[in-house]
Amino acid sequence: MPVARAESSGPRVIAHVDMDCFYVQVGQRKQPHLRGQPTAVVQYNSWKGGALIAVSYEARKYGVKRSMRGDEAKKVCPQIQLVRVPMARGKADLSIYRNAGSEVVSILARKGRCERASIDEVYLDLTDAAEAMLAETSPESLDTIDEETLKSHILGLNGDGSDLKQNVRKWLCRSNADRCDKLLACGVLIVSELRMQVLKETEFTCSAGIAHNKMLAKLASGMNKPAQQTVVPITSVKGLLESLPIKKMKQLGGKLGSSLQNDLGVNTVGELLQFSEEKLQECYGINTGTWLWNIARGISGDEVEGRLLPKSHGSGKTFPGPRALRSIASVEHWLNQLCEELSERLHSDLDQNKRIAHTLTLHARAFVFSDSESDRKFPSKSCPLRYGTAKIKEDTLNLFQAGLREYLGSYRIKSLRSRHNGWGITSLSVSASKIVAIPSGTCSIMKYFPGKDQSCSSPEHLNDIIVPETAVSSASGLHPTELPVDYQKEETSIRHAVPSLDQQENKSEGYAREDTYQTMQSPEHEYPSCSLSKTANDSLVQETSTLSSSGAESFFKLIQNELDREFHEDAGLQYFIHGATQEAQKRKKVKDKGSTSILRFFQSCNNSSSSSHKQEPDETIAEAKALSSPSLNFKSVSSSRVPTEAELQKENTVTQTGTCSSMSNLGQVEPRREAWDYSIDEIDTTVFNELPPEIQEEVRASLRPQKRPNIIKRGSSITHYFLPSKSTCNEPLLFEIVISLKPSTPNAVAARCSRSTPTVNKFTQGWQEQNLAQITWLWNIARG
DNA sequence: ACGGCTTAGACC
DNA sequence: TGGTCTAAG
Questions:
Q1: What is the pLDDT of residues A361-397, one digit of tens each?
Q2: CB count, 10 Å around CB of A222?
Q3: What are φ and ψ of residue A438, in 5° steps?
Q4: Exposed, middle or buried: residue A175 (CB in 10 Å: 0-12, 13-18, 19+)?
Q5: At what angle do helices A483-493 and A534-547 cross, to 10 degrees?
Q6: Nearest by Cα to A110 from A124, A131, A127
Q7: Could you say which nucleotides of strand B lie within 7 A of any protein CB atom?
Q8: Is A188:A168 a contact under the CB 8 Å cutoff?
Q9: Cα–Cα distance between A300 and A713 in angstroms, integer?
Q10: Half-sphere exposure of A438 (CA within 13 A, CB side)
Q11: What is the distance in angstroms measured between the alpha-carbon CA of A72 and the sugar C1' of C7?
């Protein structure tokens, strides 16, 4: 939905730069013999020659269109060259295009604020550059103007054929022009320069529009393609919009545009002028109404956002019609493929841009046979994003199953015994959002974090780690008709948020309690247990052994996750320590709060110990230095093709300083605490009941309801996100508790854990062994 | 039973 | 805030 914004004060110079059939150009650069030939880019070559996603201008002359199949294109243009989109993991891989887009952006960002609008489009705010130019070397004083620049188009300038270039020259150099036009003229020169630079450095051509706002610039960029540019003087705006079909306007290509046509009988932007602002607001609401009134007059206050990098990453695939996925096993397979791609991209983002994504979202489309309208209703689900391919896969699968349960629940499909499930999945996509730049102090180490380690990213290894998961999923995969098994799996698989831990759990002998399964079921999940297969029952036993300690697990999982998230490989730990000690030396005190979880973690440790413990960090530092091998250099991973953040960003320095300052503010606001606090926002009551009595007692004793900050907050515990949603729960399963531990040393934390019952003990032993060293590091560093 | 795959933004 | 919907390339 468009939203109205006031036009800023002075006249701006805005450019929209659009790459010409970008994918084709990328292909042609790679295979130069394709240049000048009718060419198209196809994906999925297997069926009818693949689908065209980009068509060269030479091919367009033959009537080749996007949305043709490769075979059709061959019919109308037999000599057409088809370039295939690279495939990876069974799906199209667009990374070469994304990277090529980054090359272009890094050049276009040189002259002003730059917004990456899509893979092949950017907006530029050239106001400052144009004003600077006007102040120094106004176009009228130029005696030579580049040939290419003279090929610019000036909207509304009636070039009477004969001497177009002279007309352009005249317009650019008019001394009597008003300031608005002079600024635009400067914009024309700057954009022309930029486009030539793009061509020189990337071999790509592009087209551009130059105007006083984004909307007009965007309109103009498409008016003369390819490899040309068009400027829109204010005096031409009215004429341009008057006859412009309403659907050509950005934001009006869809339902809103149709509504204007059908409900108001408006077919051109000009026809919008007859409606009062009030009338439009009445029809479309205050925001959209005002926006419409404005755009009819060529007014648009949208700012060019300084953003060179995408705000999210996603990987998806469709499974149309007969190819719909019909079993959990196949869904899992594809989700894994998507997750691998996503994880790879997240890690490059971390490497290249020092950014971390915080939210993982799963989207799917599904159908049930009973409802032809059903395919849009599959709920999307999201949860906090944990780095590491295995974790992303695991969380994604859980999100999917939560979604599926809700989806099927809404159709009252509770028990599916028939051979064919009543559902099918027609599309899957996994995305990562809420991406923020990490504080500069920790940048140097972040690139060594999860993903480099095979234990995390290699699929083979992954299978080794999540033993029980694999076992159960293959069982349910073999028996897709027995959904209760899947649900069972869904209920329990969330207990495997910590692979290493689970491994530990399952190797050792657990004690299984018969009633655990029942206890864990919410009233909504009354699946006939008689339909469980033997395999499933075996899995169940295995699973319940895990469940019995799940309370303790969820208790500690938070801690584990915090550690694991950023320390789950030695290299990460080493470099973190290295970075952290540097940072500590620099600032004496880590003040950043609310950035990465680990820093928050630090903060509380630091606070708690600053007065009572004056332990010197020397040892730690020495050891940290020893650990961080000097032979490894910290050189940038960027290739010449893909610009690094440093190369790209003005934006980022702004972002980062902004982030830092706001964080230090937060740091000051943060109340000083004696305790080493872990806030577990929500815990499943049934999980709580599973805790050994003494632990329950401890937890109760440390409950501080009166201290709860801000009512019930959504939990940070991963498990929360996979529990049944409100709509499928009769009563709230969750309540919020705050647990305080006041250990004097890290050993005390571990010791305290070992005092628990055998099950918990087993759990904590694993935890202890794995993490005591890490806790100790943290403990010491926090005081550094 | 087909256009596939991505990203962004607004609303509630 | 998470989830849904719209839009665009």
A1: 999 999 887 777 777 789 999 999 999 999 999 999 9
A2: 13
A3: -80, 155
A4: exposed
A5: 20
A6: A124
A7: 1-11
A8: no
A9: 39
A10: 24
A11: 28
Instruction: Name which of A146-150, A211-215, A564-568 the model is least confident about.
Output: A564-568
pLDDT tens string A100-119: 999 999 999 999 999 999 99
Q: Is the CB of A312 under 7 A from strand C?
A: no
Q: CB of A381 under 7 A from strand C? A: yes
Q: Peptide bond before A226: cis, by omega within 30 degrees of 0?
A: yes
Structure tokens belonging to residue A763: 């759990």
- Gap from A379 CA to C3 C1', Å: 7
Contact, A736 vs A708, CB < 8 A? yes
Q: How far is CA A425 from CA A23, A336, A477, in A?
A: 29, 15, 15
* Contact indicator for A469, A517 with CB cutoff of 8 Å: no
What tokens appear for A394 in the block? 């695991």
Residues of A assigned a catalytic role: 121
CA torsion, points A554, A555, A557, A559, in degrees to nearest 10?
Answer: 160
Nucleotides of C under 7 A from a protein CB: 1-9
Closest nt to residue A248, judged CA to C1': C8
Question: What is the C-alpha to C-alpha distance for residues A145 and A184, in angstroms, rounded to an integer?
Answer: 15
CB A720 within 7 Å, strand C: no
In the structure, how far is the CA atom of residue A379 from the C1' atom of nucleotide C5, in angstroms? 12
Neighbouring C-beta atoms of residue A119, cutoff 10 Å: 18
For B9, which residue's CA is nearest its C1'?
Answer: A1
- In this complex, the answer to whether residue A742 has its CB under 7 A from any atom of chain C, a nucleic strand, is no
CB A285 under 7 Å to nucleic chain C: no
